[in-house]
């Protein structure tokens, strides 16, 4: 299918404009940011409830649930490098559309999967779908953010807006999922698939076939310089530690909520709290931090806040609180983890273009997620074992707190 050649396509490829003293986003940037919103609505309508479904309906052991969740992250984050390289070679439109088709099939499959092998295949398909469309969208947002910066705007602010859109989707998605979960998990999955049908149709019409300024490169020749780029790899490892900590929203947090409340009903509200924080505070925080801290110091602060979130639960856990009081440490964890995420995620994406090889931004954007996805694959299985190990209540949370704290030492010095 060819892209439309009428006014909408021309508008999408227009550059940033200055209106009333403020720099407005280009139509293409607005489309890509709305894309992130739609992606996350569909995704987070399903993901927060996957852990409980695997453990209760499918009957998986705790370590296997952790492995499947890590496998989902690895099949997504770990294969971002493939999607990023394909976007550099073929442009973002075909890669985004193919990813949407695979996500639709993966969600539909997961809704009917009842055996372990079937669940794993569906989860792999869901992850690989995002490995196609997400690096394509993220690398183009980063490239357009640089164009926006050249016109006097802020690169980090664009990426913060991208984060806000994603978290707005993460806010709405679990609420939709919780509502549909009263029917059954299959209905939740089919609703997620339906959202991606709408995304596919919209992007088949609106997304340009070729974006001016984006030159296609050969697939070969990019990995060698990337693997020799120590500063970039150090950033990848630190980002992986953050992502492993963030993944505990789907592994450690549900277990803690179940213990404190006797059910996972409050989980949707904790996810909503996280998303609401990002939606309301991301841009003011980005502006405030941008005036005071450089990229490295911003990431250091974010990683230490995340470590503090785990420490809050570790300190309170031996008391064995339940009910509303028992949920307070979990809420503190969510707040501190979210504040850390608000610093780490946009800053890491803003740092990548400064470290990437010319013309390979998609590859480097994908590699950032691929390395971190490998860390999450290994770390999630270890986390599942740790949480089921029978150690004193505070120990697993203290170990998890040490991961982002240790990652501070990995960050590039310059």
TrEMBL record:
Membrane association type: Multi-pass membrane protein
Pfam families tied to this protein: MFS_1
Listed GO MF terms: transmembrane transporter activity
Alphabetical list of InterPro entries matching this protein: MFS, MFS_dom, MFS_trans_sf, MFS_Transporters
Highest rank taxon of the organism: Bacteria
PROSITE patterns (UniProt xref): MFS
Any one of the GO CC terms: plasma membrane
Keyword Heme: no
Main location: membrane
Cellular localisation: Cell membrane
Protein name, entry field: Transport system permease protein
